[in-house]
Specification:
Structural class: mainly alpha
Radius of gyration: 16 Å
Number of strands: 0
Low-confidence stretches: none
Mean pLDDT: 86
Strand content: under 5%
Distance between the termini: 34 Å
């Protein structure tokens, strides 16, 4: 966690989300992911992303949105993603399999 906080401190001049994310990570760690702190942090994060739509697109490419949803539902990230992936319709699974066959 300390390495993540140092990285975010280093990225503050380059990424608008870094200060908020740094604060959020520290609070969640200190409070051991308690529900009330998590919900306040998620709301602050969503408000921030509304103000910075370009960064919102960037963060969608990471595991952070899935992690947030997993924590809100009380699941581990792995179980949440497994459940979410298994819920996809069969044609989409087939398309994804085809895509992975085409990729080197």
């Amino acid at each position: 966690m300390e390495a993540l906080l140092r990285l975010l401190k280093h990225l503050e001049p380059k990424i608008a989300s870094a200060p908020l994310l740094r604060k959020w990570v520290r609070q969640l760690y200190q409070h051991r992911l308690q529900g009330k702190v998590l919900s306040r942090s998620v709301q602050a994060w969503n408000d921030h992303l509304e103000k910075h739509p370009t960064e919102a697109l960037l963060w969608r490419l990471t595991l952070l949105p899935d992690w947030i949803e997993a924590k809100k539902t009380g699941l581990s990230l792995h179980l949440y993603r497994e459940k979410h992936f298994l819920a996809l319709p069969a044609p989409l699974h087939a398309m994804m399999d085809k895509l992975f066959q085409l990729l080197p």
